[in-house]
Write a structure and sequence with these properties.
α4 packs antiparallel against α5. The chain has 2 domains: 89 residues, Alpha-Beta Plaits (2-Layer Sandwich); 70 residues. The chain is built from 5 helices and 6 strands, in the order αββααβααβββ. The radius of gyration is 22 Å and the shape is elongated. The chain is of the alpha+beta class. The strands form 2 sheets. A 3-stranded mixed sheet has the order 1-2-3, with helices on one face. Strands 4-5-6 form a 3-stranded antiparallel sheet, with helices on one face. β5 and β6 form a beta hairpin.
């Protein structure tokens, strides 16, 4: 029995295209697209991009000032649980910050780090609001602090500008906050 090369190659290519095409279509239309619609429909989300890897779902978000980040995470975790399917949810929030908000956060960072290290999370809103009392140039800055089981969410806004900081509650062994 002699095998002909062309039909074997053609069958192999067709099988591979069907297999990987089906896998890509399933991932795109059954997993990623419903999650994309879910995130985009949340109030305050201007733009979103979703990247799904084996152990992690990364949401790249552009948010409007005043968006409740903790509620967004809870909503996506609950409503998108079938798409997330045991993967860790990682947020990458685009910063529409200003020099004033960056300066405000720089002044508050030491006090916030101290509160995080000592696990006295109730001190964080007081420290952030205390900066407004110390310096009148920060009177227009709105600081919102929220907490869940995994993270502390700090939102700073000043009109159309915003800065979102996600601080993990589990202390890292070494290093600084990479998303501050």
């Amino acid at each position: 029995m002699k095998l002909r090369l062309m039909p074997v190659l053609l069958t192999s290519l067709l099988s591979a295209a069907l297999l990987f095409g089906g896998w890509y279509s399933y991932r795109q239309f059954a997993v990623q697209e419903p999650l994309q619609k879910l995130v985009s429909s949340y109030e305050g989300v201007k733009d979103s991009h979703i990247s799904i890897k084996r152990n992690e779902v990364t949401l790249k978000l552009d948010l409007q000032p005043g968006t409740k980040l903790r509620e967004l995470v809870q909503y996506v975790s609950k409503e998108g649980s079938s798409a997330i399917n045991g993967r860790t949810l990682k947020l990458d929030v685009e910063q529409n910050s200003s020099a004033l908000l960056d300066e405000y956060w720089d002044k508050a960072m030491f006090s916030v780090a101290e509160a995080m290290e000592s696990r006295k999370y109730t001190l964080i809103p007081a420290k952030l609001d205390g900066l407004k009392v110390q310096d009148s140039k920060y009177s227009g800055v709105t600081a919102t602090t929220e907490i869940d089981d995994n993270n502390v969410y700090v939102s700073l806004s000043n009109g159309s500008e915003s800065k979102f900081i996600i601080l993990p509650r589990a202390a890292a062994t070494m290093g600084v906050w990479n998303n501050a």
